[in-house]
């Protein structure tokens, strides 16, 4: 448990690259908010509605008195409360980020860790107690009442030896692991021609200078989109104005499903290539949304998707006829709530999953990056990526296997170790035949 807590806090206290914008680390207003005692937050629920207007979207909680109010992009009740009561620090119920109205900035601090963990447990319905929170805080140097630490559970001797990729494959072949969760990131779609986000030089964020953004991630910031949707539409036109073929990784995930051992695929990608590869939607959690539906950012009315796709291809922002505000595909922007489906299935990760396979993700975006911490201690975690995720350094387990390298290459190797080459080759032949018939549509 301590390792999981340290990992979560490491993400929270990480270098600025983990955030959409650089948070302020020396906010002088935190000390006045009395965060040594968390008992006033024991009855909070997440999500919750605005006290004033009953709005349930984009709500924040006052860190001083636990008042819940809507954001300035709804009816502005949280800002009004902050101005009236001089309670300037709030926490977002969407992404658990902290904001100081006096500093006019996102903020992070050791003093906020306890409340962050409490909110995380309320949001994700974990059963850990406030006692465990304060114990973890104390281990990080945050002064709290002393609590006797429970002796850490020791793994059985047979679990202490590090696993190999061959042993992971054998656990799958033998049926020992038959409820596999696959967590995928942008790295699995690079072979399709879609750039990832963070690779220097070739990543998406490094190619956005031509849009004159205040910072690269602003293209996915709701506040910026509301004022200037054009950069997002231009980017979308470049990325999705053509058809992409699913990669070998996408077909491997479908193969797991056909073998009836895929519990769920949690993808951070918005390209919908999992569905194009034939994965059934009931097995897919699109954590960061999808381009397949669109809504007005204000009235939330569902819009005509054919018209939206035409606007995206032409890089012409689609505006709502009622609100005269931009229409946005249902992908998750920074500060937005993840889809309801994501939260509805979190319990299965902890209670049912017997193996986690992470492919092509650096695990840098909360809350998806917290999934590996929810897996049972004895469940193998296979990481397939070019680099080991920095956020897992504090939670290494004997059952972890880092299969380093290119996602496509390593998946082919894993397929061979599993003895599934014949089945896999049939799928790839199906893909190649489709590509041959649709050469004019496909991005190669």
Describe the protein.
The protein has 444 residues and is α/β, with parallel strands linked by helices. Helix content is 32%, strand content 14%. Strands 9-8-6-12-13-14 form a 6-stranded parallel sheet, covered by helices on one side. The protein has a 5-stranded antiparallel sheet with strand order 2-1-3-4-5, with helices on one face. The protein has a two-stranded parallel ribbon with strand order 7-15. α3 runs antiparallel to α4 and α9 (248-258) packs across α16. The chain starts with a helix and ends with a strand. The model is unreliable at 1-6, 8-21, 126-134 and 136-159 (pLDDT under 50).
Q: Which tags fit this structure?
A:
444 residues; alpha/beta; six-stranded parallel β-sheet; 14% strand; disordered N terminus
Radius of gyration: 23 Å
| Strand order within the widest beta sheet | 9-8-6-12-13-14
| Proportion of beta-strand residues | 5-15%
Give the overall form. Answer: globular
The low-confidence parts are 1-6, 8-21, 126-134, 136-159
Beta-strand segment tally:
15
Largest sheet report? 6 strands, parallel
Mean pLDDT: 81
How many separate helices? 16
Helix content: 25-40%
Q: What is the SS-derived class?
A: alpha/beta
């Amino acid at each position: 448990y301590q390792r999981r807590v340290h990992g979560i806090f490491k993400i929270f206290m990480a270098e600025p690259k983990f955030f959409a914008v650089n948070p302020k680390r020396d906010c002088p207003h935190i000390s006045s908010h009395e965060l040594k005692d968390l008992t006033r937050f024991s009855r909070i629920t997440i999500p919750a509605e605005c006290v004033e207007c009953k709005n349930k979207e984009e709500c924040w909680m006052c860190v001083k008195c636990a008042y819940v109010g809507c954001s300035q992009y709804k009816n502005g009740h949280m800002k009004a409360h902050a101005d009236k009561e001089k309670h300037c620090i709030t926490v977002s119920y969407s992404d658990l980020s902290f904001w100081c109205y006096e500093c006019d900035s996102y903020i992070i601090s050791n003093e906020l860790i306890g409340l962050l963990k409490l909110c995380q447990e309320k949001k994700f319905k974990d059963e850990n107690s406030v006692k465990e929170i304060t114990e973890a805080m104390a281990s990080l140097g945050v002064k709290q009442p002393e609590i006797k630490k429970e002796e850490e559970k020791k793994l059985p001797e047979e679990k202490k030896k590090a696993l190999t990729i061959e042993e992971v494959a054998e656990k799958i072949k033998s049926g020992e692991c038959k409820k596999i969760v696959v967590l995928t990131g942008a790295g699995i779609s690079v072979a399709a021609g879609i750039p990832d986000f963070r690779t220097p030089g070739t990543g998406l964020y490094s190619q956005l200078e031509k849009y004159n953004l205040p910072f690269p991630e602003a293209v996915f910031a709701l506040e910026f989109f509301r004022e200037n949707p054009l950069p997002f539409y231009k980017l979308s036109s470049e990325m999705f104005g053509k058809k992409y073929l699913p990669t070998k990784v996408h077909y491997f995930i479908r193969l797991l499903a056909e073998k009836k051992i895929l519990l769920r695929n949690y993808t951070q990608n918005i390209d919908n290539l999992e569905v194009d590869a034939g994965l059934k939607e009931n097995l897919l959690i699109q954590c960061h949304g999808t381009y397949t539906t669109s809504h007005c950012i204000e009235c939330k009315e569902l819009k005509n998707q054919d018209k939206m796709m035409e606007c995206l291809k032409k890089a012409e922002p689609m505006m709502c006829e009622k609100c005269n505000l931009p229409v946005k595909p249902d992908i998750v922007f920074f500060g937005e709530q993840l889809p309801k489906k994501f939260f509805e299935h979190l319990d299965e990760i902890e209670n049912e999953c017997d193996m986690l396979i992470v492919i092509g993700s650096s695990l840098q975006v909360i809350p998806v990056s917290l999934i590996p911490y929810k897996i049972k201690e004895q469940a193998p975690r296979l990481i397939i990526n070019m680099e080991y995720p920095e956020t897992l350094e504090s939670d290494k387990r004997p059952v972890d296997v880092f299969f380093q390298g290119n996602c496509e290459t390593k998946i082919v190797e894993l397929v061979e170790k599993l003895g599934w080459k014949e089945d896999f080759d049939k799928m790839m032949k199906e893909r190649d035949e489709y590509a041959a018939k649709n050469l004019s549509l496909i991005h190669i």
